[in-house]
Automatic annotation (TrEMBL):
Residues 457-476 are annotated as: Disordered. Transmembrane segments: none annotated. Coiled coil: none annotated. This is Recombinase family protein. Pfam families: Recombinase, Resolvase, Zn_ribbon_recom. SUPFAM superfamilies: Resolvase-like (SSF53041). One of its GO terms (molecular function) is DNA binding. Residues 167-271 form the Recombinase domain. Residues 463-476 have a biased composition (Basic and acidic residues). It comes from Microbacterium sp. A8/3-1. Residues 9-158 form the Resolvase/invertase-type recombinase catalytic domain. CDD domains: Ser_Recombinase.
């Protein structure tokens, strides 16, 4: 017989583990049925608590609404808890016992479901509730094992996993390439290899109104980084962040392009984080007096304006002589024009005639990296199968790791050359589009052509910019 004597308002809780549509329809139906039950008994609802697309079995996953309900119970605001079914509350026996303990300490003596009432003071009722919790936990464990086994089978076959999320670049079946998005991925990959930062590419994607394939309305650097680093876009099957083998879908970019992307990431990680670009030539200019680095700076003019400059700064934080300054606008204009002009000159083409050798080194490094990664997989599988001893496994693994690391270093060193190669002969086109590029992209292009330049001391009494002060150090 149901106990309907509840004085304080009740809490209505709903949860669903996997919301495939993302529309919350499952929890909406739970809430609807619970509210109907509350109305039938003449109770008052204190609040509703909804955790959508969150498991009640997997440990360590925060359920914010469940935690909020517990806080309201502890504050004495709730007289009973109403859920669609006991397993919507929790599928873990230990958590159920902790929930009961909190309720009993704060005057909540009922868990009400659509099919039954559970009185925390009734031994028989609690026995049934505990058995229900144990059965739910066992079923969750069995379901999890089935899911993990299915994932392992998919990995071995190179197939995608289930789930509602559509990967960017592919159709809903996660296998067929969506060419409109694939072209965007190729464009972003090329610009990233050319030196453009992630934040600049993210800004471009958002400015162009290109939607993501997920629930987020806008692109973020973390989203784009994950996309570019994923083996998926190169036709590889990832598992736990590692390449597990060939995929069943077509690639969007080549393996070589992917390795170049990873090499750029590795190079930038080694160089450390850089503050957002403020001046076009930041980090590229050197002092002709002391060889120290020139820093960007601005000063107010007598007319009340602001003049941008590059200056050699003295002191322990900079280490320069503090005796050289050059106005930013004219030196930036001159170097930009000189760099773009040089892209179309025969000298650069001659300097890069060894491209075939570079390509061969890159292909060899990619092959060596792939062989080392396969070797690591082989020895791990042999050890797991008992074909080799632990000592043999520990002896073989460092050798394969060393070969993989060496191949990675070669690819990283070749990554810097890719930027210049992709720009050669494009000077006129880039000049026409220059004003449409972000400052980050402009900086990346200039840096690829001109890694550094020395600014000589100026001539006293000469007011205009003197191009002879610039001593460029060309990349090729």
């Amino acid at each position: 017989m149901r106990n309907e004597a509840v004085v304080r308002p009740v809490a209505v809780y709903a949860r669903i583990s996997a919301d495939r549509s993302g529309e919350g329809l499952g929890v909406a139906r739970q809430v609807e049925d619970c509210m109907r039950l509350v109305a039938e008994r003449g109770w008052v609802v204190f609040d509703t608590y909804v955790d959508n697309d969150i498991s009640a079995f997997t440990g360590g996953r925060e359920r914010p609404e469940f935690s909020r309900m517990i806080a309201d119970i502890e504050a004495g605001r709730v007289g009973a808890v109403v859920v669609y079914h006991q397993d919507r509350l929790t599928r873990r026996p230990g958590e159920f016992e902790r929930f009961v303990e909190v309720c009993q300490r704060h005057g909540v003596d009922q868990l009400v479901t659509v099919t039954s009432d559970i009185s925390f003071g009734n031994d028989n009722g609690m026995l049934v509730a505990r058995i229900t919790a144990a059965v739910a936990a066992n079923e969750s464990a069995r379901k999890r094992a089935r899911i993990l086994r299915k994932v392992e089978q998919n990995v071995a076959a190179g197939k995608p996993n289930g789930g509602a999320a559509r990967p960017f670049g592919y159709e809903d079946d996660k296998v067929t390439v969506r060419e409109t998005e694939a072209q965007i991925i190729r464009t972003v990959a090329d610009r990233f290899i050319q030196g453009e930062p992630l934040r600049s590419l993210v800004a471009w994607l958002n400015e162009e109104g290109i939607p993501t394939s997920g629930r987020a309305d806008t692109w973020r650097t973390t989203t784009l980084r994950t996309l570019l680093m994923a083996g998926r876009i190169a036709g590889l099957r990832d598992h736990h962040g590692e390449v597990a083998g060939e995929a069943a879908w077509d690639p969007i970019i080549s393996r070589e392009v992917r390795e170049r992307i990873l090499a750029v990431f590795a190079s930038r990680k080694r160089a450390g984080r850089r503050a957002p670009q403020r001046y076009l030539l930041s980090g590229l200019l050197r002092c002709g007096k002391c060889e120290g680095r020139l820093f960007s700076a601005a000063r107010k003019t007598p007319a009340g304006g602001v003049e941008r400059r590059y200056v050699c700064q003295s002191g322990p934080d900079h280490g320069g002589c503090g005796k050289l300054t050059v106005s930013a606008v004219p030196v930036e204009s001159w170097i930009t024009e000189a760099a773009l002009y040089r892209l179309d000159t025969p000298e650069v083409a001659v300097a890069l005639e060894g491209r075939g050798v570079t390509d061969a080194r890159h292909a060899d490094a990619v092959a060596a990296l792939g062989a080392a990664q396969r070797r690591l997989t082989d020895v791990a599988e042999m050890f797991a199968a008992g074909d080799i001893s632990k000592a043999e496994y520990l002896a073989a693994r460092p050798i394969a790791e060393a070969k993989a690391a060496e191949a990675g270093r070669v690819l990283e060193s070749l990554a810097t050359r890719d930027t210049l190669d992709s720009l050669v002969g494009q000077g006129t086109l880039i000049r026409d589009r220059w004003d449409t590029y972000s400052l980050d992209r402009q900086h990346a292009i200039v840096r690829a052509i001109l890694p550094s330049a020395t600014i000589a001391p100026g001539t006293r009494g000469r007011g205009n910019f003197d191009p002879d002060r610039v001593q460029p150090h060309w990349a090729a």
